[in-house]
């Protein structure tokens, strides 16, 4: 991977990680060296968890080695297996991780189509997906667009089901001044290097219980998650269940502590770049910028810059546009193509899923470069290349 460059013709990737000032990270590393404590719930991990609780207004935050491992742990706690397996209603328009977590926990995904307005799980179609075998609902705040949490949770309550949100893209999104991560029984956050806020690799579960602070159920779930990520070890040295190893380490937590104070600036920069894209591309027939419109009370994190390409109106297909950009050193990504039931590993079992909106979006979507160090000139270069491919 070449070094970051602001040169006009430098290769442009869909994202580049934010890097905090080196001196700030060095200071954390010095602290870690002095303590000779590298992992297993050390001081950096505890300080980072506390900082996140404050930033999110959360009661409980459990840190993990990745967002994916956090999802698996949450599923094991909220939808424990039984002899008949069990089903999880989820979205087909997401990254592989969401569905893989369900399958790897011995559960069966049931795909509910998404709504066209924001490509999140369509709450109107949710009830029809629920059966006596349903154990949990797993929607995704895809691209950081908030799901219709009120409608989803109303259905969940009617059926006595827990909701686990995949908020891999949603760190920093607030609705009515409240973090989106405070929805559902739990919300997973990804802190992968490709996210606007990161810990290199890493993730978290925000535990919400029934919303009442300090309930015994919340504390029970927090204790269960600790066991899931640390070999099932309970208090003392007794091993209570066959847990795995999914702990965040001290260096990852240190990166999180360094990135957190910069998050406001990162978001502001991404918002400004998004606006530039909008100015350059708005009104182009066949091209829909799938970036948030101003919704009262919603603060976005500008996590991605997806566009939807309608071949007939635009002049070329999404894939032709993708190739044309690549030829000019612009490495846009087809997040998220294909729809999950159409993966080679799932086609046979789930290929007949009735998900027309997700399939249409998967065939049209392309995520353009967006990261804090991108320049306006580079955005203009991407937009010129997009418009040229469409025949302008
Ligand atoms: N649920 C959802 C909905 C998710 O989107 C994800 C992850 C998860 C769950 C699971 O969360 P984690 O377990 O990952 O915490 C990337 C990320 O690896 C993945 O975190 C993310 N979603 C997914 C959407 O994208 P790739 O394989 O497409 O990334 P990669 O390596 O091709 O990187 C993309 C571009 O970023 C590169 O072309 C250049 C740049 N890059 C990347 C890395 C890793 C850098 O400049 N530096 C870097 O260190 O999956």
Number of domains: 2
CATH superfamily membership of the largest domain, which one? Type I PLP-dependent aspartate aminotransferase-like (Major domain)
Tertiary shape: globular
Q: How many strand segments?
A: 15
Largest sheet: 4 strands, mixed
Rg (C-alpha, Å): 21 Å
CATH architecture call of the largest domain: 3-Layer(aba) Sandwich
CATH fold annotation of the largest domain:
Aspartate Aminotransferase, domain 2
Element order, helices and strands? Answer: EHHEHEHEEHEEEEEHHHEEEHHEHHEH
Helix content: 25-40%
Described by its quaternary structure, the protein is single chain
Q: Could you say which small molecules are bound to this protein? A: ligand T4K
Total helical segments? 13
Global mean pLDDT? 95
Structural class: alpha/beta
Uncertain stretches of 5 or more adjacent residues: none
Write out the strand line-up for the largest beta sheet, numbering strands in chain order: 2-10-9-6
Give the N-to-C terminal Cα separation: 32 Å
Q: Approximately what portion of the residues adopt beta-strand conformation?
A: 5-15%
CATH class of the largest domain: Alpha Beta
